[in-house]
Amino acid sequence: MRFRLTPRETSFYDMFSASADNIVTGSKLLMELLGADASARAEIAERMRAAEHAGDDATHAIFHQLNSSFITPFDREDIYNLASSLDDIMDFMEEAVDLVVLYNIEELPKGVEQQIEVLARAAELTAEAMPSLRTMDNLTEYWIEVNRLENQADQIHRKLLAHLFNGKYDAIEVLKLKQIVDVLEEAADAFEHVANTVETIAVKES
User: Which residue in 14, 83, 132, 147 has its CB near the most CB atoms, within 10 A?
Assistant: First the structure.
């Protein structure tokens, strides 16, 4: 890590960790959605909405700190990209839950649980990685594993699309379910964006 003569604003680390911890909360709500009947989903969606609002607050706090800090722990552009990508994850997860409720989906197609399991694992890894931004130690395995999970998510997504278009569902139901699985895939992509940003930061700081 390169030597610095100036002090750095360290509160960013805590804010990134808080944002990532909130994503873990969101991933647990997604898991809860899988086992819930239609009557319980609205309440889960409400809690997910509250978590998404908490995520927005965390992102705004990072942006405010960025705008008011003279010295930052790493490049401002990277701080912005990391905060934005973390926020995107939460937005996509909340959107997926909201669509399930709005579309009155009675049963999610087989394979969605695998998508959500991948997201839950990526959320755990991301939350574990954020505190390591202070030292940039032991992060290589994090971004390698998240990239592997994103590749796995791609495969699951393709299989889900093939299942949806096999003629079992009517056209309207296909459109509804495809939108949900596409949004979950976007969440997986956003986890990869976070990991790629962390890798960029680590390379710059080495």
Answer: 83
The 8-class DSSP code of residue 35 comes to T
104 three-class SS: coil
Structure tokens at 73: 């722990």
154: helix, coil or strand?
helix
Question: CA-to-CA distance for 42 and 119, rounded, in angstroms?
Answer: 21
* pLDDT for position 5: 34
Return d(Cα 126, Cα 122) in angstroms, integer. 6
* 3-state class percentages of the chain: helix first, strand second, coil last, to nearest 5: 80, 0, 20
In terms of pTM, does the model score above 0.90?
Answer: yes
pLDDT tens track for 87-137: 999 999 999 999 999 999 988 999 999 999 999 999 999 999 999 999 998
* Residues 93, 41: Cα–Cα separation, whole Å: 14
Centre a 10 Å sphere on the Cβ of residue 169 and count the other Cβ atoms it contains.
16
Which letter does DSSP use for residue 167 in this model? Answer: S
